[in-house]
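re: that chain from earlier
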Amino acid sequence: MQSQLSVKHLLGIKELKKEDIQLIFETADQFKQVLNRPIKKVPSLRDITIANVFFENSTRTRLSFELAEKRLSADVVNFSSSSSSVKKGETLLDTVNNILAMKVDMVVLRHSSVGAAHFLARNVDAKIINAGDGTHEHPTQALLDAFSIREKLGAVAGKKVCIFGDILHSRVALSNIFALQKIGAEVMVCGPNTLIPKYLGELGVKIEYDLRKALEWCDVANVLRIQLERQTIKYFPSLREYSLYYGINKELLDSLNKEIVIMHPGPINRGVELSSDVADSHHSIILDQVENGVAIRMAVLYLLAGKQGQ
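^ sequence. v structure.
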């Protein structure tokens, strides 16, 4: 059994081995037990300083990382570009080097540019965790999604997972595809033709444009939100029309001859991709995903810090 990660940074799922993912899951299992104790804190990273450097808005991911860091007793500094010298024209590298000059060991980076985390990993002397780079990858989200499937269904291998919605603009979709395939799941994507990238077929992913057929095929539906803030042109006539063809509601789920698990990375556009009675139903493990996010991020931080000094 592998005892440490094969990578120095977490830049994307693409760079991870199957054994790395298994190690992260087993470590997260232990941290989940810690999170359910009366005292939810361990001293594992009390000598480590972590900077959360977010150049894009985020609530869930930033809070989840911050909570994970504090549960591990790390020292935490938060950086938001909206109130920083970036507004004055400072570059990403200058910003991070200034933070590192304050003796920071790890950087959790979210940036709108694809490859920003890879760029930093090549240029600075700190452990880098990619918390989302443009429309490229969001590795900890994919890990917590797969971990949540494993927790709910007992295993990921052999399961049929369909990712619904705005695949084109989603970093969650690509990371999920890599993670699920590495641990043995079958993956399908479903959405409007305009929101499904042409290259996905080359990744061994099934493509379906009919919502009902996709739901009848899958064990798990991971539903993504429509990312209007990333769309520079109209990819479908209206949100109402999107909801009509690709919105999942209770009536539709009840008409299937099986139970499926509903997931969503958040934030949910209620009434667009999911109706409230589905988001809040027994099918949904959305709040479990949020809880598991802290355990997964604790595991990633802990394992990367273990390679400190190597």
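Strands lie at 49-54, 75-80, 106-111, 127-133, 160-164, 186-190, 206-208, 220-223, 261-263.
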